Amino acid sequence: MKIYTKKDLENKKINDVFYSVIEFEALSGVEKIINDVKKDKDKALIQYSKTFNDGDFQSSNDFLVSENEIDEAYKNTKKEVIEAIKISHKNVLEFSKKQFECIKNFETQINNSVLGHRIVPLNRVLCYVPGGNYPLPSSAIMTVTPAKVAGVKEVYLTSPKIRPQTIVAAHIAGADKIYKLGGAQGISAFAYGTESILQADKIVGPGNKYVTFAKKYVYGTCDIDFLAGPSEVLIIADSTANPELISADMLAQSEHDMDARSYLITTSRDLAEKVQKSAEAQLKDLKTREIASHSFEKSVCIIVDNIDEAVEISNKRAPEHLELMFSGADEIKEKFTNYGSLFIGGNCAEVFGDYCSGTNHVLPTNMAARYTGGLSVFDFIKILTWQNIDKETALNLAKTASELAEAEGLFAHKLASDLRKG
Fold this sequence. Notes:
Layout: E1 2-5, H1 12-19, H2 30-40, H3 42-51, H4 67-75, H5 79-100, E2 106-110, E3 113-121, E4 124-128, H6 137-150, E5 154-158, H7 164-173, E6 177-179, H8 183-192, E7 202-204, H9 209-218, E8 223-224, E9 232-237, H10 243-254, E10 261-266, H11 269-284, H12 289-297, E11 300-303, H13 307-317, E12 321-325, E13 341-344, H14 350-355, E14 381-388, H15 391-408, H16 411-418
Parallel strand pairs: 1-11, 4-5, 4-7, 5-6, 7-8, 9-10, 9-12, 10-11, 12-13
Antiparallel strand pairs: 2-3, 3-14
């Protein structure tokens, strides 16, 4: 972990390290994969799945996880893990239901026109769950659950080299179909449809850079949640914070992959040095120390004079996860406006949000928290407006509409309005 002062941030090189943003540029071969699947459909899916060792499918019938495979997945998953999945799902389900209660159909009257909106769920969505270094049953819970609460008619989940615990989590969360596809080829299949796979209206969920670029490429053909880069956490702490908790939370983020990042902003250099020593000690016995140590070495700590400076830096960085470990944090939490999810106090481990507290862990990274929040029930609905206008009200509106249409030079618009004048 490199330690700098806020003054050092004026140096462009350090500024680039701390505020670096990943550009999701075209990746060699990905566009070809997408277009091959778009053209050759199931045949291309079978071929690319073999090429990337994502599945040795003999036919398109093998794409779908069968009922027998679901039964086997339960048998091959420890009872303690199944119970943990159920608890996690229960908490995420309860939070999602409370979120959904915030959204209401309504109608109102403006100048005698009756206007309103109604909430309509999407018809079909695809939840993508990575299947790389680690099985991620938690991502199955986080993506499928809010979609089901929102009332999506068909919720599909796919994951390459899918693990038993992921199948169990998808089943408990209520996925209507579970697939074994992944990578750019899997994204393409559900974006455009194949002989055996129906086109999705939206694709959500985390993935590697190839999945992310594929999502960017197909956006417009279907919707996506957002483009997610490597995972990240930013912790703001003062001298009252526990350095062991901070280092553990930073390492938890670092072990995701080589590109994961953890940041610390603190008013105490002494704390920063203790966090460094604590991390070195914790890494010695960590099974994932190769990845975690690589990422942690690239972590950054900024020493600031006061918490207000920390707030300013945090809002500019817009981190995926933001932890507040300083005295009086709860009183000023509203000053933080750009983050994916907020964790207040030393007891509030970021990993609780990853797994089971109830909020969603599919969150904006790469400074996307400047303009969006995390995945939620709101991502699985459409808000459709409507209006009902009587003849008398139409006479009044036509005067205004005709004037504006003529001012814009759109004379068919003006005609359509004039004809309502009677």
